[in-house]
Amino acid sequence: MAIKIFIDQGHNPQNPNAGAEAGGVREQDITYEVGIRLADLLNANPNFEARTSRTYPEEQLGTSTTTSLAARVNAANSWGANYFISIHCNASDILEASGSEAYVYRLDSEAAVLGEYLLIGLENATGLPNRGVMQNSGLYVLRRTYMPAVLMEIGFITNEYDRYLMTTDPESFARGLYNGLLSYFGLA
């Protein structure tokens, strides 16, 4: 039986729920590209079945931020996904801030362990710093999912190097997340 992974490419192409922008780059374009590539890697492996929240770059989910988030969660819940991974880009006023972070509903959870593996995979594939797993029980996609859910901030869109890497080499981020999943499930 294949492990069902729901990949949420954070944010919409335009408001409501558009993401961060920096240096002429939009978060939602990076998350879309990394998510599609991750789904392709997973779907090429018979151990997995993957679905994405956005199936084409211009796809808008919902008519408000809340309904956009609900559409993502409801799609994963109704499909019966085993795991939920939401892909995002971080932003900071501190332009030197760099690296990947994972957010989970609770630190003493299966999701937190998965987050650690995903961060190690990203660090190995991209060379960006592993900033650790953090708890954020207020995030809708972590509160409302029925399965272990991790929100991944894969890099800082406000950091020139992170942004360059995410735009020119999205495959490394997808492969890092994929390798993290393989390690988590003992398939590496």
Automatic annotation (TrEMBL):
One of the GO BP terms on file: peptidoglycan catabolic process
Domain of life, source organism: Bacteria
Stretches assigned to coiled coil: none
GO-annotated cellular components: outer membrane-bounded periplasmic space
CDD domains: MurNAc-LAA (cd02696)
GO MF term (any one): N-acetylmuramoyl-L-alanine amidase activity
Occurrences of domain MurNAc-LAA (ranges): 73-182
Pfam families: Amidase_3
Segments traversing the membrane: none
SMART domains hit by this protein: Ami_3 (SM00646)
Entry keyword set: Hydrolase
Cited Gene3D superfamilies: Zn-dependent exopeptidases
PANTHER family, per the entry: N-ACETYLMURAMOYL-L-ALANINE AMIDASE, N-ACETYLMURAMOYL-L-ALANINE AMIDASE AMIC
Protein name (record): N-acetylmuramoyl-L-alanine amidase
